[in-house]
Amino acid sequence: MENLIAAFTSLTGSAPVGVWSAPGRVNLIGEHTDYNDGFCMPFALPHRVLVAAAPRTDRTWRVRSLNNGEVVTFSGEDLVPGMSGWQAYVAGVVWALGEAGHAVDGADLVLTSDVPMGAGLSSSAALECAVLTVLADLNALDIAGIDRAKLARRCENEFVGAPTGLMDQAASTLCTEGHALFFDCRSFETRQVPFDPAEAGLELLVVDTNTPHTHVDGEYAERRRSCDQAAATLGVPALRDITSDGLADALARLDDPIIQRRVRHVVTEDERVLDAVRRLEAGDVAGLAPLLDASHASMRDDFEITVPTVDLAVETARRAGAIGARMTGGGFGGCIIALVPRGEADRVADAVAAAFAEAGHAAPDRFIAAPSAGAGRIA
Ligand code: ADP
Ligand code: MG
Fold first, then answer.
1. Which atom of ligand 1 is nearest to the CA of 88?
2. Which residues pair with 206 in a beta bridge?
3. Catalytic sites, residue numbers
4. CB 219 within 8 A of CB 332
5. Pairwise CA distance, residues 310 & 359, whole Å
6. H helices of 253-326, where?
7. CA 165 to ligand 1 centroid distance, Å
8. CB–CB of 44/171 below 8 Å?
9. CB-CB contact of 348 with 205 (8 Å)
10. In angstroms, rounded to a whole number, what is the distance separating the alpha carbons of residues 76 and 379?
């Protein structure tokens, strides 16, 4: 924080009027359910983007990221969708606010982030949501949390050009400390679900497999198509409308075994999210473990979105003492989460690192994630 304020002062010659932050996230459970109108349950990481800011009187935004050392400046005329580079995540927020009828004044912004970038932990949503929170406060805009998330998503979808659901921005904006966020991807209804691994004598370990993502876009598009096609064949708006009671009937009406497996993943994953909510609301954090395991098996065998490094990480974590583990995120690399007895996280992560070294994979990263607060002003 001191470094950030010093950097702001050296850029602008005066002190910031405040410091704001927004977190990255991990998804506890509910993978590839978003575009099927289903359920997911992310929580906010302690890792965040911090932004020191002060208003300007012109319609110019000057932004410095301490992560890459760059300073970029843009004005109202530069707000054209398709802008390239990291500044698009900032300019796109100004643009999305403008599109929604909120004309905002210029600002000086200096930011720094400890959210790992490109690891599937949503450093992009953290950046968008932090900037949105700054601009909303500096311009005294009264925008509800879910609408802030939608504006940040609009930045990412339409200005940056990355097609994503609303989960990441909803998590970064709406999460609260000690809770996971149940999110209904059809109605956008949310619920704060108590999630305190420490109180249950557990820790939530995140291991980044550092696997280079390959073929992700094509595979993602193929999964989406399969799901849309299955919903059309079954005569429902989305796979969310198939419940576990109706699963056997639905599968009998689909003749392609691959499509059958895709549908089984989505339907059972939605059910696992609802089950996870019930267990957490009953205070049963350890009860998540079998759901994490089942989610991983479903992603590996039915949705076929895991890769060997990810499976190795999950299997090794379990053998080393995790009570449950799964890949988190869209797949084909990224992170795993493991629920481990308190004090065991290092041992479990060391076991994964050793297995990776033995198999000749790049070294994984690790951290413990306590469910943290969403975006807001911190100073
Ligand atoms: P993820 O959201 O999974 O971390 P993305 O590819 O969606 O991965 O977003 C990463 C991109 O977001 C980076 O390549 C960069 O353009 C931008 N970004 C995120 N955080 C920062 C930051 N602190 N400074 C500059 N750019 C950032
Ligand atoms: Mg992202």
1. 16
2. 337, 367
3. 168
4. yes
5. 12
6. 257-281, 288-301, 308-319
7. 16
8. yes
9. yes
10. 28
Task: List pocket residues of ligand 1, CB cut-off 6 Å.
Answer: 49, 65, 67-68, 86, 89, 111, 113, 117-124, 127
In this prediction, residue 340 carries a pLDDT of: 98
Cβ 312 vs Cβ 355: under 8 Å: yes
Q: What is the pLDDT of residue 216?
A: 85
pTM: 0.96
Pairing of strands 107-113, 60-65: parallel
297-314: per-residue pLDDT in tens? 999 999 999 999 999 999
User: What's the 148 CA to ligand 2 centre distance in angstroms?
Assistant: 16
Alpha helices (H) in the chain, listed in sequence order: 2-12, 88-99, 123-138, 145-154, 167-174, 216-234, 247-252, 257-281, 288-301, 308-319, 345-359
pLDDT, residue 212, reads 82
What domains appear along the chain, each with residue ranges and CATH number? 2-192+373-377 (3.30.230.10), 196-368 (3.30.70.890)
Residues lower than pLDDT 70 in the chain: none
What is the DSSP track for 315-348?
HHHHHTT-SEEEEESSSSSSEEEEEEETT-HHHH
Q: What pairs with residue 32 in β-bridges?
A: none
The helix (H) or strand (E) run that includes residue 40 is strand 39-55
- What was the pLDDT predicted at 23? 98
User: Beta strands 60-65 and 202-208: pairing type?
Assistant: unpaired
Alpha-carbon distance of 122 to 104, in angstroms, equals 25
Question: β-pairing, 365-368 with 71-75?
Answer: unpaired
- pLDDT score recorded for residue 217: 85
**Residue 137 burial by Cβ neighbours in a 10 Å radius (0-12, 13-18, 19+):** middle
The DSSP string of 96-108 is HHHHTT-----EE
